[in-house]
From TrEMBL:
A single MF term (Gene Ontology): magnesium ion binding
InterPro entries in the record: Aldolase_TIM, ThiamineP_synth_sf, ThiamineP_synth_TenI, TMP_synthase
Pfam families named among the record's database cross-references: TMP-TENI (PF02581)
Record SUPFAM superfamilies: Thiamin phosphate synthase
Function: Condenses 4-methyl-5-(beta-hydroxyethyl)thiazole monophosphate (THZ-P) and 2-methyl-4-amino-5-hydroxymethyl pyrimidine pyrophosphate (HMP-PP) to form thiamine monophosphate (TMP).
Pathway noted in the entry: Cofactor biosynthesis; thiamine diphosphate biosynthesis; thiamine phosphate from 4-amino-2-methyl-5-diphosphomethylpyrimidine and 4-methyl-5-(2-phosphoethyl)-thiazole: step 1/1
Binding sites annotated in the UniProt record for 4-amino-2-methyl-5-(diphosphooxymethyl)pyrimidine: Q40, Y41, R42, E43, K44, D75, S113, K143
UniProt entry keywords in alphabetical sequence: Magnesium, Metal-binding, Thiamine biosynthesis, Transferase
Protein name: Thiamine-phosphate synthase
Gene Ontology BP term (one): thiamine biosynthetic process
Cofactor, how bound (note): Binds 1 Mg(2+) ion per subunit.
Cofactor field: Mg(2+)
Family: Belongs to the thiamine-phosphate synthase family.
Length: 215
């Protein structure tokens, strides 16, 4: 069900990253049509929906992603993930006890964020993690409490060291995408490269082209 290939083109979005709900579903639909391989619903930070509104939107997302056979990950909300039948859950370092979270997330797959080699080493013996997200690689305005950017020199050694599949995140654009791909990371996760794109299909086509050149 979960394979490292799933991480390849990982799109992350919450309604706070778009103008409104209509725009959110427009962008998500274009991204699904364009060929993203994984979607994370990250409803967080200023302007995020809460309670019933969040559940309502999440149910629509579940329907839409299922239509395109794209797995759905929920950021930091285990009960929502179970309620709507999501495929995975993602946790940051500040999202509570990792071992407890992994237990409650079962049988869903689990991703954990790390922003340094020290953070990777702290979790590396924990059972039940399916992938790690590494970043922010470059500086980002899409996350309020983002750690300092680690750059390619911070990213590459963690990719090498990780015994789990990994995905790079943070400040990734069409300009620096090739440099990220060259680290051999399994996947790339983006918000604004897609949500702010003037042509989502072209952006994903370009992404595919770079991935083809890698192989
Ligand atoms: N985690 C680390 S950076 C980030 C998250 C959720 C935001 C990524 O957004 P963008 O627009 O791709 O920099
Ligand atoms: Mg988080």
């Amino acid at each position: 069900m979960f394979s490292s290939k799933t991480l390849e083109k990982y799109f992350v979005l919450g309604t706070q990253n778009t103008n409104d709900e209509e725009n959110f579903f427009e962008v998500l639909t274009e991204a699904l049509q364009g060929g993203i391989t994984l979607f994370q619903y990250r409803e967080k930070d200023h302007g995020a929906l809460k309670g019933h509104e969040k559940v309502r939107v999440a149910k629509k997302i579940r329907q839409l992603t299922a239509q395109y056979h794209v797995p759905l990950v929920i950021d930091d909300d285990i009960s929502l993930a179970h309620e709507i039948g999501a495929d995975g859950v993602h946790f940051g370092q500040k999202d509570g006890n990792i071992v407890e979270n992994i237990k409650s997330a079962s049988p869903l797959f689990v991703g954990i964020s790390v922003s340094s080699m020290a953070e990777y080493k702290k979790i590396k013996n924990i059972q039940g993690i399916d992938y790690i997200g590494i970043g922010p690689v470059f500086s980002t305005t899409s996350k309020e409490d983002a750690n300092p950017a680690i750059g390619l020199t911070g990213l590459a050694p963690i990719v090498q060291e990780s015994h789990w599949p990994s995905v790079a995140i943070g400040g990734i654009t069409e300009e620096n995408l090739a440099s990220i791909i060259s680290t051999q990371v399994n996947g790339i996760a983006v918000i604004s490269m897609i949500s702010q794109s003037s042509n989502v299909r072209d952006t994903i086509k370009f992404w595919n082209l770079l991935l083809l050149n890698k192989k």
